[in-house]
Amino acid sequence: MSNPHDTAPSPRATIAAIPAYVAGKPPTPRPGQQVFKLSSNENPYPPLPGVVEAAEAAVARMNRYPDMGNTALYAALSDKLGVAPEKLAAGTGSVAVLYHLLQAFCEPGDEVVYAWRSFEAYPIAVSANGATSVRVPVTATGRHDLAAMAAAVTDRTRVVVVCTPNNPTGTAVSDAELRDFVAQVPPQVLVVVDEAYREFVRDEDPVDALALAAEHANVAVMRTFAKAYGLAGFRVGYLVAHPDVAAAVRACALPFGVSSVAQAAAVASLEAEEALLERVDALVAERTRVVDALARQGFEVPEAQGNFVWLPLGDRSLEFAAAAEQAGISVRPFAGDGVRVSIGEPEGNDVLLEVTAAWRSGVPVPE
Ligand SMILES: *Cc1c(COP(=O)(O)O)cnc(C)c1O
């Protein structure tokens, strides 16, 4: 019997449950108004010195497939991080690395524990791989409740994700807290430490996830070139883990996934460490300026350790985002919960502080 064209075959049941990823929007340009995109935690700086040249040289060879083994990238990372190349697994962004890891480790219905609210890609990646999300609410100050997360681990748990600093609430766990947590997690459960914003951390006891991963075969570290390194558009991230874990993740990766341009740009970015650190310091200084100003305006902002701040505005989050949009900045609201605002150019951050000041005083925001 033929299949009528209006009845398509059904995907796996778990696919219908995938929540939509809501990407940060660019601001709508208005005549005479400068606009700033503060909605996706991107780096406002242009590529690091030498990166455009390296990428252009790779573009000229686009008739060839990329190096499937990411050899130069793994060599550069291995050098920089002091880890053996067999402990590395690269992907098209650390989100892709997470997909591969869940595919490698989760049978249908296996549980993945993570904090909530946290990175919106987690529930999507978990559902897409047929696993089950177990969300553990963050504390009133936006911190991971690690005790509750440890208690949420069951016989079905295969993976626990610790996002530090946490997107979108901004808080970081300390090294002591993470060590204590890992000690409570059974050895067959993988603890994935998502360090997308690690360069921006200025905690007195910062997580040393690589050391922890060196000591525990069930600890894996995810990092990305998208944020501090400013390569969001090129899609490259990586995992550092026990060689067997890294091999399983590499086995699930799309063949030739990371483009030759992305590989070349990532290697060149690693070589520009001095400029990277300067830019990160400047963004951290701007973060401090914004957080201090928000506190003076009377906002209760959780500790901000990433390149963004979290305004817990609850039911008024969408209203705030609309007011910000009017003033020329796009922010990322989470309805009923809060608003995440990236630290951008100083001029953009100034606009944010004008919007928040007007918000506090109840005066309509100037356009
Ligand atoms: C931005 C971000 C990433 C990085 O994603 P890419 O796929 O590398 O762009 C990973 N984790 C968190 C928490 C993030 O906010």
TrEMBL record:
Modified residues (N6-(pyridoxal phosphate)lysine): 227
Alphabetical list of SUPFAM superfamilies matching this protein: PLP-dependent transferases
InterPro entries xrefs: Aminotrans_II_pyridoxalP_BS, Aminotransferase_I/II_large, ArAT, HisP_aminotrans, HistidinolP_aminotransfase, PyrdxlP-dep_Trfase, PyrdxlP-dep_Trfase_major, PyrdxlP-dep_Trfase_small
One GO term of the biological process aspect: L-histidine biosynthetic process
Keyword presence, Disulfide bond: no
Keyword tags: Aminotransferase, Pyridoxal phosphate, Transferase
Cofactor(s) annotated in UniProt: pyridoxal 5'-phosphate
Superkingdom of this protein's organism: Bacteria
Enzyme Commission (EC) number: 2.6.1.57
Quaternary assembly: Homodimer.
Matches recorded under PANTHER family: HISTIDINOL-PHOSPHATE AMINOTRANSFERASE, HISTIDINOL-PHOSPHATE AMINOTRANSFERASE 2
Official protein name in the record: Aromatic amino acid aminotransferase
